[in-house]
Amino acid sequence: MFCYFARIYEKYQLPVYPVVVFSFDRPRQPQPAEHRVGFPDLEVLEFRYRVIQLNQLDWRDFVKSENAVASALMAKMNIATKDRPRVKVECMRMLATLKLDPAKLRLIWGFVERYLDLTASEMREFEAGIKELPSQESEAIMELTVSWIEQGRQEGLQEGRQEVLEQMSILVTHLIEQRIGELDATTLERIRMLSADQVRRLGEAVYDLNSTSDLHDWLINNT
Length: 223
Fold this sequence. Notes:
About 60% of the residues lie in helices and about 10% in strands. By secondary structure, the chain is mainly alpha-helical. Strand 2 (about 35-40) and strand 3 (about 40-50) form a beta hairpin.
């Protein structure tokens, strides 16, 4: 940190505010925030810098933040194992409500996916958490995932597109169940088997569905 500081200060001759972000999981104890050089008879250097140690921060303190960086860094904060699915839900909700360009959104979500890679059981909790969100937030998340699917299709990113497609199917299913009630396992499986384009069109048709019969008719006519 001191070497970086000295080189930047030498080059630009401007005040430099030194900050380090520690994103590691271990160690847990607070890290030093200063660098000293001294001798028994002379203190040559006392250099201080700001430390942001993510595993010392509580993710709950950032849930209401409108800062896009916070939505990403939550994935590396102090998270109890049982809270991992909930944190991912909150990251998704925050991203869906922030007004960011698609490139930044994909970058941040990629960070969250990398550091909050959920197990199968955690994914089920994540899906349940998405279903518990208010309809307005669910719709915002669906719109966001639609844009990711379209961009993924254009870039030919099959693996990433499939992951987003699964999340979009979850959100569309949630919106449908809010309107017409809980769906049976067979209908849920039919929705999961839809293509990206079919899921997108079903999402657009959600508010035209008033019963399970309407949904079954849509699936027959569009698959």
